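Exercise 7b. Backbone tokens:
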């Protein structure tokens, strides 16, 4: 009987933690917006312990990685958020920003185009795509002049 009650207690704790995810997420996003990255990261990690494929937590963990200079991890985490929720234009848009910081213009363009395909009126994605295409054009033009 003790084994059964331990199992029930463990499941009720897990159930309680899962129902706390919206509150944890709200707190994490607020902390993130305030620039309190370590505290936000800790809450995102708690969410991911309950649900390793939670798209919002993965996305914002990726943004924290980006903000702290770990661009490789940022791409990995935002890509995982896209796998978990492939219809979210913001995830593609932010991955484009990360790729741009890595000077990977082709991947940047692809990410912005995917964001626009999902949300055709996404003005920031159109703007960033235009800037990136202009940058790539100038880079190709300068390479042709030097070559």
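Sequence design result:
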């Amino acid at each position: 009987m003790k084994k059964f009650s331990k199992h029930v207690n463990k499941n009720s704790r897990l159930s309680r933690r899962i129902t706390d995810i919206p509150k944890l997420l709200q707190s994490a996003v607020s902390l993130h917006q305030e620039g309190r990255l370590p505290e936000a990261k800790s809450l995102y990690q708690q969410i991911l312990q309950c649900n390793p494929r939670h798209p919002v937590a993965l996305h914002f963990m990726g943004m924290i990685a980006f903000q702290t200079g770990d661009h490789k991890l940022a791409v990995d985490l935002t890509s995982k958020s896209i796998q978990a929720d492939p219809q979210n234009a913001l995830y593609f848009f932010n991955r484009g920003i990360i790729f741009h910081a890595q000077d990977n213009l082709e991947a940047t363009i692809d990410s912005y185009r995917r964001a626009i395909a999902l949300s055709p009126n996404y003005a920031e994605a159109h703007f960033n795509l235009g800037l990136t295409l202009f940058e790539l054009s100038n880079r190709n033009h300068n390479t042709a002049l030097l070559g």
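Instructor comment: Residues 82 and 91 are 6 Å apart (CA to CA). The helical segments are 2-19, 21-33, 37-50, 55-67, 71-84, 89-101, 105-118, 123-146.
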